[in-house]
Amino acid sequence: MTSRQSEYVSDSGSDYTEYWVDWFLGSRGNEYFCDVDLEYITDRFNLTGLNQYVDRIGLLVDIITDRTQISETQPEEARARLEDNAKFLYALIHARYIITSRGLSKMLEKYRNGDFGYCPRVNCKLTPLLPVGLSDKPRVASVKLYCPNCEDLYNPKSSRHSSIDGAFFGTSFPAMFLQNYPELVPTHNVDVYIPKIFGFQLHTQAQLTRWRLLKREQLLKRLEGLKIDYGKEVPGGFAEPVDEVAGAK
Amino acid sequence: MFGHDYFVEVAPEFIEDDFNLTGLSSIVPFFRDALDVILDLEPEVPIKPANVPLVEHAAELLYGLIHARYILTKPGLRSMGEKYEDNCFGSCPRYYCQGMHLLPIGRYDQPGIETVRLYCPNCNDIYLPSSSRYLNIDGAFFGTSFAGMFMKMFPEIQRQCDERTKKQFELKLFGFRLNERAPGGPRMKWLRQYPQSKEEIEECRKCEFAMPTEEDEDNTGTTGEAEDGRMDEDNEEEETTGARASAGESMMSIVKD
Fold it and tell me: B4-163 has which CATH code?
């Protein structure tokens, strides 16, 4: 308890928070996480298989839900280990929770607030990002950010986020999120950048870009064949090229 | 100065050569005074106290525009190369670019339109600087041609990029790929695609000078004209920068449309 308390005070100096979950979400670097319902955590069914990653799962659940507190009689290392395990377990439950409908709606709010940052790509025009893991197993890769506009992966801007495990969000989260909220699939911006010297485009880059635009044309033809609307009004459709660079030869 | 770590020091000889400043007097107000400030010369007529902030501002603008010309010359490119090696401009935020170093560029050569952007030679795309302190630096202080010139000057960057992964990210739901028919399905794959199979390489070869399809990309006519206008202007600049030797080389490999 003391370790948590002192850590919290040294972090921000604000009043002591009562609940473990609030403390966890309030500490620096955990801005990507949302709060998991206590009912979800206490339901044993939702924890199936997690005991292979942490031991004494029952005690950890009790710590997370504030039913017990880490006793102060234990040595420092044991307390720190319990603390770390509790965080780890919470994050793993979090990965499962955010693909449930309640979790998705909580993440939607965070997405709307731009808690995960915005796409750094200029032509994405600050599309909000979604956190994604490259593996569902913990300790494989750190969290990455997915941009629904350019459908690409980015590293988190801040180093305190790049140390978060990707398994705490899971590989399926962005897809689940966009399936659930299809209206949030952006109209894809199709502008591309081609480097120029004194107004002339660089040949290799321009050639590759032309080929990529050709690929896009082929995709549009395929969609047309399937009678799928890809206009700029539909989610997942394509915007008109506005930039002088796109479309110009 | 704060946020000015993208800049290199322009050689005083470059600034002193009036030839390198051709055309700048019409863009920068208080041109003479601003130039004196940059070169630390005592002005013949003291600047009116009311004008001091204006002159300071003009000096910043002038220095930036000279900087844009200077970094296209050989010594300029070399000093920018050192900064690039030190990763002064940051690394590409894209995961599959594996921390490729970025280059500062502007999308316009005229000042006051857009702030500086960062170009990644690997994914061939432009990004916003990660720190807000670079958001008040004008893109024209680096210019549209810098990234291209830089890569022609240091062809090993291109080789480095070719070795990097061509892998693309595929969004999966419980391990299953999404179909492109779904609104959230993969529809931007083309953006990072590289020709892999034989047919694709053949297709790419056909794209050498134009798109092979009948219905070419629209609005070619209008932008073509606009670009011609820009081209003349920029060619003038090329003369002034005195970067003719290296420019000549790179022109060989650029296609003229």
Answer: 2.20.25.20
Closest CA to A129 of A157, A103, A101, A105: A157
Tokens of B191: 């953006």
The predicted structure's pLDDT at residue A248: 38
Ramachandran angles phi, psi of A154, nearest 5°: -130, 155
Tell whether A170 is covered by a domain.
yes
Residues A52 and A97 in one domain: yes
Proportion of chain A in helix, strand, coil states, percent, rounded to 5:
45, 10, 45
Query: In terms of CA atoms, which chain B residue is nearest residue A174?
Result: B171
State both tokens at B59: 């000096």
Output the domain CATH number for residue A175: 2.20.25.20
| B165 interfaces chain A, CB cutoff of 8 Å | no
Both tokens of A235, joined, read: 């989610």
User: Which residue ranges of chain B lie beneath pLDDT 70?
Assistant: 1-3, 212-257
Asked whether the beta carbons of residue B183 and residue A185 sit closer than 8 angstroms, the reply is yes
Domain range for A45 is 20-105
Q: Is residue A235 domain-resident?
A: no
In this prediction the pTM is 0.81
The structural domains of chain B, with segments of one domain joined by +, span: 4-163, 172-209
In the stretch 69-88 of chain B, residues with CB closer than 8 A to chain A read none
Question: Could you say which of B144, B184, B223 has the minimum Cβ distance to residue A182?
Answer: B184
ipTM score for this prediction? 0.82
Is the separation of the CB atoms in B67 and B141 below 8 Å? yes
First-to-last CA distance in chain B? Answer: 41
**In this predicted structure, what is the pLDDT of residue A17?**
58
Q: Is the pLDDT of residue A13 over 50?
A: no
